[in-house]
Each structure stands twice: as C-alpha cells, then as structure tokens.
Prior knowledge:
The complex is a heterodimer.
Chain A: H1 6-22, H2 25-44, H3 49-69, H4 73-103, H5 122-137, H6 147-155, H7 157-160, H8 168-171, H9 182-215, H10 222-253, H11 271-277, H12 280-289, H13 300-316, H14 320-339, H15 341-346, H16 349-368, H17 372-382, H18 391-399, H19 401-410, H20 414-422, H21 426-452
Chain B: H1 3-17, H2 39-53, H3 59-64, H4 68-78
Helix pairs in contact in B: 1-2, 1-4
Amino acid sequence: xxxxxxxxxxxxxxxxxxxxxxxxxxxxxxxxxxxxxxxxxxxxxxxxxxxxxxxxxxxxxxxxxxxxxxxxxxxxxxxxxxxxxxxxxxxxxxxxxxxxxxxxxxxxxxxxxxxxxxxxxxxxxxxxxxxxxxxxxxxxxxxxxxxxxxxxxxxxxxxxxxxxxxxxxxxxxxxxxxxxxxxxxxxxxxxxxxxxxxxxxxxxxxxxxxxxxxxxxxxxxxxxxxxxxxxxxxxxxxxxxxxxxxxxxxxxxxxxxxxxxxxxxxxxxxxxxxxxxxxxxxxxxxxxxxxxxxxxxxxxxxxxxxxxxxxxxxxxxxxxxxxxxxxxxxxxxxxxxxxxxxxxxxxxxxxxxxxxxxxxxxxxxxxxxxxxxxxxxxxxxxxxxxxxxxxxxxxxxxxxxxxxxxxxxxxxxxxxxxxxxxxxxxxxxxxxxxxxxxxxxxxxxxxxxxxxxxxxxxxxxxxx
Amino acid sequence: xxxxxxxxxxxxxxxxxxxxxxxxxxxxxxxxxxxxxxxxxxxxxxxxxxxxxxxxxxxxxxxxxxxxxxxxxxxxxxxxx
Lengths: 464, 81
C-alpha cells in the first residue's frame, strides 16, 4: 500500500488510528500496530510478506542465540551467518537478474536470466535486521525476547517500505512502553500532511517537468539538460523527504521518535556535507557497520571510503548507473579529503556552493539515466554549446515557473524559520496555533484533489 | 599503564592527526568538540593510536567509542607499549 492514495489517507489510516487509540495499554497497542502493519504490507505483497516473516524469524533467532552465547566465538559465527543470509536474500531478490545479465556478457555463456520482481521495502528492512544483529553482537542493545515485538520493529508500517532505516536502539524502550501526548499527535499529523503535500503537490508535478526536459535528451540543449537534472534532483528530494516526513510523523502519532533523515541537503557547501544531510539513516548505517571493516590493512581509510560508496551505489539499484553514481560521489569526497577541511574552508563560499550544486545536479543525471548510452549523451549535452533552449522547453518552464520557484524556496529551511518566529511572542504563538490546522486542512484538500485526478505515482524510493 | 601518561601521548597524537597544537583532550572530549574529527579522520586517528600503543581496536570499539575517556580505558587495558 502507498501513503499517497486516498484509500490509505481516508480509510486505512483513520481505522488504524481509531483501533490504536481504543486499545488499552502498550501491549494491545502493539498488537493493533502489528496487525495493521502486516495488512499494510500484504496489501501490496501478498506473497512476499512471507519473505519478510522469514527474515524476521532468522534475525530474531540470531538475536536470541547471541544473547545466550554472550561475547564468544559462537556469537560471532551466529551473527556472521545471519548477516550473510540477509545479504544473500537481498542478493537473490534484488540482484540476481543483474548479476546473470552481466555474466552473460562473457562469450559463450548464456544463462537464463531469472525474472524476480523486487519485494517492496526489502532493502530497508534487511538493513534494519542487519543493524539489529550486529548491535546484539556488539552488546549495544539487549536481544528482544518477544518475537511479536521484534516483528513489529521489522514491519512497523510507517517506515517499512522506504525508510528511514530505524535502528533497534532508537525504539528499544518505546516498543515496551510509550505514550502519545496531544502534542505528539498534533505534531505527527501535521507532519504527515506536510509530507503528503511535498510528495503530491510538488514532487509529482516536478516529475512531469523533469521527464519532459530529460526525456528527449538527444535533442536537448545544455541549459535544458542542467535544468532537467536540477528539477529531477528536487523531485527526488521532495519525494523522498516527503516520505520520511510521513514516516516520522506517523511514528510520532504512535509515540515513536525516529531520527531525522534529511536536513536541507541542498544547503550543503561541499559533497561531504551533502551526504551528512541527505538520507542520513543510510549514511550512518554504512559509517557504523561498513566503513571500519578491517580488511584493507594500511590502506583502510581510502579502502573503506571506496567500499562505502560502491555499496551506496549498489544499494540504490541493480544497474550500472547506480554503481557509477555511488563511485562518482566517492570520488568527490575522496578529492575533498585530499584537499582537507581547512583548505576547503579557504575557498570562497560562493564557489563551494556552485561546485557542490553542479556536482549534485550532474549526479542526479546519473541517477536518472539507467541506459548508459543515454547517460553518455546527457554528459555531452551538459557541456555542449549552441542555442540556449528550445521553444518547447521554454514554454514548459514558463508554464511551471511558480511551481519551480516554490520548490527552490522550500529547499531552504523556511518552515523551521516560520516555526521559530511563531514561538517568539504570545500573540504570534496563538495566531500560529490557530492557523496551523487551517493550513494543514488546505494542504490536505489540495493533495486530495490532485490524488482524485491522478494516475499512479508511487514513491520513487520504493524501487530500492 | 599509567592513565595520565597515556593521555599525554594520546594528546600529541590528536595534535598531530588534526594538525592543531592547541588541542587539549579530556575524558569527555568527543568528535563534536574537534571540528576535523569526522568518520574518515577517525580511521587515521585509530591507525595512529594502534601504532603508538602496539594494540588493535575491535570494530565494535572503532565504531562505538563515544569519547576520549572510552578510548583511554581501552588503551590502558590492552596497550602493550
């Protein structure tokens, strides 16, 4: 099931909220959430829900065994086997087609390419279970004894299908005991509406502009290629951060406090900082569990860096353009490391902004074009000369000028700023408190109108 | 090993790695206090500490150490020179 569907917003969610708040005590509330989470997933994945259950059983068992064996060799073997199984399942269901296709490039090899559809959310829940098993081994969390609670952690519907990648330690206490105050519920619901609006009002509309600019890349001008990739970058940002807003907001309604996943990434001054602000839960996952893997000996700094960015690329999809995309970022971060933070700071701020935005925008071109020939065309177009922009593209941009201006403005921390100002004095605070529900209601109405009229637009990060 | 000796030697490693002679570490010093101490510099720091004290950190420790105090405890426990 997808959040940006009228069925979810007006039927599933209200029924779920009603049942949740009628239920007494955390145990009953957990049961309600688990039931709705499994229904939510099975709605879209009636078969693969079994795969998720299998993954939960394996990792739950591994956690229990590690708890029993303590700090011993047996624990390390158990954790190793569990992580291996997790990666193997991800490999089979996400990458087997890609791997076989590439093996088939070897002359005289012709294996049948398996046609396996990607189970929704597998990349996200697999990373959650991996982090859980490693945390059990490192004794940073206590292995969960109740399978029902562990399954709730894996399947919790707000963040199940597209993150953030929630660490078990984040919800360890709240899964046992939590409350949702009126403030939590109000904050959460407003955040959900904001996320829906970012997705439906902005991202989906930007998508139409990006597709028409990048669709005919063969005939595009340099300006059209740059603008198209920039619009696409904003589309992905509003799509994915909108999803994170909904996940964090729903979590809060149910009394969970998930960590933020985005911090205005386009405000960054260099590429290193971009990745400290973009999809934070993925970056910290790789930092904590992969960067320090002791396999590179003396070259462990750059070895680790290279490995992390290779995996970041591959994680995003079974396709070469994602591998290139990951290594592309790794390369710029490597260069920034060579220059060093102190020297980077001496470069004028405006140049650092131009540099980082150019790298990010071209980077989203790599993200967009899965076809490597088209990707090559895109890069030649970026640096082509000639007429500025075609008539059709110009009309497209003029017709969408308000949308584009709004999108650019909202990449800055405008909403945080308004929130801060609204706390300054009592009259402003009252005015803000009164107008917030009205603004939210208006956004929800507009979102609903667009959804009634819309053909299917699932969240883009469902693909990963 | 004497903890304050270890701290002195560790302090000079910090000054060296982060290229800043004014750094004065204490038990509560963490990555938040030293601007250049990010996840990649952390690797250099770990490598330098391992060499200086003739020891190896476990991955769990590399990833999990929260401040200099925890690092000092591990060095005092396992450092060999």
